[in-house]
Design goal:
This protein has 73 residues and is mainly alpha-helical. Helices cover 75% and strands 0% of the residues. The longest helix is centred in the middle third of the chain and has 23 residues. The chain is rod-shaped, with a radius of gyration of 18 Å. It starts with a helix and ends with a helix.
Amino acid sequence: MNLILATIAAILIGSAVALLHGAQPAGVAAFVFANLVNFLLVNVFLAIFNLLPMPPFDGGHVVEGILPRPLAA
């Protein structure tokens, strides 16, 4: 889900850059642009953090699926 949200943020950032024709955003546009960048970075960080191979994270489930049955328990 985090990667989907990061992709949506990247599309919105690309759209904003296209609409501004490469000019620096000002005022509310700068605020929205900065928040989109932060939203993108936070979601990419959470996606990577969630893949740590520890049991409460999704990475722990991935490791359990890769390991042989006796070692996964």
